[in-house]
């Protein structure tokens, strides 16, 4: 009988939605306390059916073992500013009582041969269904903005080349992975400076919000600039 994918994936959708909400709430809590949030923004997805089928064939996973043997049907990605934040987020996840860590893969210290870097955590997450609880596996990928930039570009090139990159592209990707690694290292070196600047910026925003609306033209245009910056920033919701 043909598999009912939408029924099978329904709990995974619920798990991804709940996890995104919870990690975005963590960021909000740090912001409310006026502290640096190790979480910059959060995305998530349920693996598309064609990717599930492709991975089942590639990894010889039987349909009846999908729930236990394919760990990334529910996927959540947490982007952070600094490499140290990755380990802080991993700690946060280990301490949570609403999920259980099953496995951790550190591709930050041990990058993949492709140059890929990220910290992967597989968790068991219980969701509440109408009449029972169901435990869902979810893969949480934690990475810096720089690692995410590299992985996103490499992933899209994969669609074109199906992993068989021409030699020059492969060499370039390796070099960009190294450049991305160096960028993360440099940023970690000036972390204090960057955070101080971010604190000043955040404080100036609070100050601007407290100003009355009817002040001079110059001030209004300054507020306008702040507003457009506000409108453009990710604010943890993507
Ligand atoms: P592609 O081509 O696969 O990149 P919302 O929560 O409603 O604000 P929404 O629409 O649910 O937003 O999307 P969200 O949460 O911003 O993220 C969806 C995109 O994030 C997907 O892109 C995925 O690429 C990517 N993504 C997020 N987390 C993961 C993960 O853990 N694993 C993988 N493989 N991808 C992830 P698209 O749109 O599917 O396009
Ligand atoms: P997608 O499109 O991201 O959903 P396997 O999938 O067999 O290679 P495994 O053991 O299941 O690997 O898990 P692993 O290696 O911890 O994580 C696999 C996921 O990590 C991939 O999902 C990617 O999201 C990401 N990833 C791993 N290696 C690379 C890489 O070299 N480049 C990029 N851009 N991403 C990578 P999928 O299944 O490929 O699918």
Provide an overview of this structure.
Homotetramer. GO terms for molecular function: ATP binding; kinase activity. It holds the Pfam family RelA_SpoT. This is GTP pyrophosphokinase. The two termini are 38 Å apart. The chain has 238 residues and is an alpha+beta fold. A five-stranded mixed β-sheet has the order 1-2-5-4-3. α5 runs antiparallel to α6 (167-189). The protein has a single domain, classed as Beta Polymerase, domain 2. Helices cover 55% and strands 18% of the residues. It binds ligand 0O2 (2 copies). Residues 20, 43-45, 75-77, 141, 238 line the site of one ligand 0O2. One ligand 0O2 binds at residues 47, 51, 55, 59, 72, 105, 112, 114, 116, 120, 151, 154-155.
Outline of the structure:
Residues 201-238 are annotated as: Disordered. One of its GO terms (biological process) is guanosine tetraphosphate biosynthetic process. The protein is of the alpha+beta class and 238 residues long.
Summed up, the domain count is 1
Rg, Å, rounded: 21 Å
Q: Tally the helices: what do you get?
A: 8
| Annotated CATH homologous superfamily | Beta Polymerase, domain 2
User: Main β-sheet: number of strands, strand sense, barrel status?
Assistant: 5 strands, mixed
The N- and C-terminal alpha carbons lie at a distance of 38 Å
Average pLDDT metric: 88
Major beta sheet, strand line-up: 1-2-5-4-3
- Choose one word for the global shape: globular
Note poorly predicted spans: 216-234
Could you say what the CATH topology is called?
Beta Polymerase, domain 2
The percent range for strand residues is 15-25%
The secondary structure category is alpha+beta
**H/E series:** HEHHEHEEEHHHH
The first-level CATH class name: Alpha Beta
Assign the CATH architecture: 2-Layer Sandwich
Q: What is the number of strand segments?
A: 5
Organism: Lapidilactobacillus dextrinicus DSM 20335
Subunit structure: Homotetramer.
Family: Belongs to the RelA/SpoT family.
GO molecular function: ATP binding; kinase activity
